[in-house]
Every structure is written in C-alpha cells, then in structure tokens.
Design a protein that fits this description.
Layout (H helix, E strand, L loop, with lengths): L1 H17 L3 H9 E4 L2 H9 L6 H8 L6 E10 L2 E9 L5 E7 L10
Antiparallel strand pairs: 1-2, 2-3, 3-4
C-alpha cells in the first residue's frame, strides 16, 4: 500500500510540474544559472544561503514529507531554492523560496 501511495504521489507531482500554474511560467522566464550540489553545500556551510533543513522548517514542511528535487538558481539576481515536495497525504507542492531568508517568490 505504501508503494502504491508513493506511485500515486509521484504521478500527482509529475502532473503538478507539467501542468503547473502561471507562476512556473514566469519563473522559467526569469530563471538564471543554477548551482550544482557542491556549490549549494559550500554556500550553505559559509552562510551565504540557508541550509535546506532550515529553509524547510521555516516553510512549515514536516519531517514526513519527501523532498523529491532541490535546485538553487538565480531569479532576478537572487538565489532561490526550487523544491519539489511530496507530502504523506499524496499532495505535491512546488516551493520557490529565497535562499538567504526563505521568503516565497512573488512573480513580478
């Protein structure tokens, strides 16, 4: 049953990513270069950006949620975490949070 729930959740996440709202369109238009995993780790360790765990805590994402994908990319000259989360209830969530303070991205 747990595997089935994860598969359904993965399908829901894929659908959400594929058919996401207009915020995804505006983000993709403003998306700059993205950091590799090593650069993310160095930036978090040096305090340039928040560690992912702290960012998720600030966003209210529980420990039972599955983080499926994480990127840190420049949007309008600022680093943002782009995070895909699958919640235990099967709900998928796309988060775009400023990497240095956790502020949600607002298209504009």
């Amino acid at each position: 049953m747990k595997k089935l729930t994860r598969k359904i959740g993965a399908i829901a996440l894929a659908s959400a990513l594929l058919f996401g709202g207009s915020a995804n369109i505006s983000v993709s238009q403003n998306l700059g270069t993205c950091m590799n995993n090593r650069a993310i780790a160095v930036a978090a360790a040096s305090g340039v950006i928040l560690p992912l765990v702290e960012l998720l805590r600030r966003a209210g994402i529980g420990a039972n949620a599955n983080v499926l994908n994480v990127r840190v990319c420049q949007i309008q000259g600022q680093p943002y975490y782009l995070i895909d989360v699958l919640h235990p209830n099967g709900a998928a969530q796309n988060l775009i949070l400023r990497a240095n303070d956790g502020t949600p991205y607002v298209a504009g």
